Amino acid sequence: MENKTPRNNQDENGLKKRVIRVGTRKSQLARIQTDSVVEMLRERYLNLHFEIVAMSTTGDKILDTALSKIGEKSLFTKELENALERNEVDLVVHSLKDLPTSLPPGFTIGAICKRENPHDAVVFHPKNYGKTLNSLPEKSVIGTSSLRRAAQLKRRFPQLEFRDIGITRPLEIFLSHEGLRCMKTEKSVSVFLQGALAIEVRARDQEILDMVSALHDVETVLCCIAERAFMRHLEGGCSVPVAVNSMLKDSQLYLTGAVYSLDGSDSLKETMQTDVNYMPQNENGPNDDTQHVGITAKNIPSHAQEAAENLGIEVASLLLSKGAKHILSVARQLNDAR
C-alpha cells in the first residue's frame, strides 16, 4: 500500500487538519482520476487534509488472463473495499464500470461525478493515422479485452479480425474517451464508438457520505442508476456482450440496451424512455438512505431515482422476453469453453 503525502496539512492557524484517506488503484489512469476527485473535495473542504492511499488490486496483478475468463466480479475493487472495511481508508475512487451492480453489505456509492464523454475510442497505429475502421485493409487485427466491444464491432465490420489482448491490458487499443482525455492522448484517437467516476464509502459513515454527496451530478446519477439496473437484471458483466447507453433530455430519460452473441451475428436491441422530473418536489420528509443499485443519493428526489431504476429493469425485461436469455447463455458457455 502506497501513501502519497499531499500539500497543506495545516489550517491557517497552524493547527493540524483532520486527515481523510482516499483509496485508489496504482494505475496511471486511476491516479489521475483520483487526483481530480481529491481536488474537487479540497476546493469544498478547506479544513480537511486529503491523503491518497494507492494499492494494487487482483485485476492489476493478473495480466496473463482475459478479464472475462477470470470469473471474479470484483477484480478492481476487492482490495480497496477490504481497506475501506478495515478503516484504513475513508473513501475509495473507482471507475463506475469496475463496480459490480451488487455491492458487498455495508458499502454504498456515495457520489457519482459528472460524466463527460461516455463513448469508447479507437486508437490506431501511426501507419493507419487518418483511416477509419471501415477503410482498414481486410483481415486487419483489432485488439480489445472487452467481449462487448468485440461483438459490436464484429457485427459491423466482419472483414476485420479481433484478438483478445487481456495480457496487455495497460496498452489496450480500445479505451474510454474519458480515459484518453485524462491521459492526454486524444491526438491518437481516430474514431469514437460508444466513464463516470464513483466514490464508494461505508454506508453507515454518515459524515463521509454527506461530505462526498456534494460531488453528485444529478443527470449522471439518474443515467447510471438506469444503466446499472439494466445490467443487474440481465446479470451482465465481463463474461457476456451486453451494451447499454442512456441520455437525459428535458426530464425524459432514454435508455438503449442490447445483447450480442460473441461473434456479433445475433443481437437484440431496444430503446425505452420515462419521465424522471428530478426538480425538487415537496416530498414527505427528506429522502432516506435507500440505495438504488448500490447508489445513495439523498440530494436527488426518490421518485426520480425509482423511475430511472424501473426503466433499466423494463428494458432488460423486454430483451429477456424476446430471447436475450438464450443469447447470453450461449455466450457464457462459449466464453467458458475458450
Automatic annotation (TrEMBL):
Keyword Isomerase: no
Pathway(s) of this molecule: Porphyrin-containing compound metabolism; protoporphyrin-IX biosynthesis; coproporphyrinogen-III from 5-aminolevulinate: step 2/4
GO biological process, one term: protoporphyrinogen IX biosynthetic process
Catalytic activity, reaction form: 4 porphobilinogen + H2O = hydroxymethylbilane + 4 NH4(+)
Predominant localisation class: cytoplasm
Documented EC number(s): 2.5.1.61
Entry keyword set: Acetylation, Cytoplasm, Phosphoprotein, Porphyrin biosynthesis, Transferase
Subcellular location: Cytoplasm, Cytosol
GO molecular-function terms, A-Z: hydroxymethylbilane synthase activity
Residue stretches making up the Porphobilinogen deaminase N-terminal domain: 20-165
Domain Porphobilinogen deaminase C-terminal: 222-282
Subunit composition and interactions: Monomer.
Family statement: Belongs to the HMBS family.
NCBIfam families: hemC
Stated name of the protein: Porphobilinogen deaminase
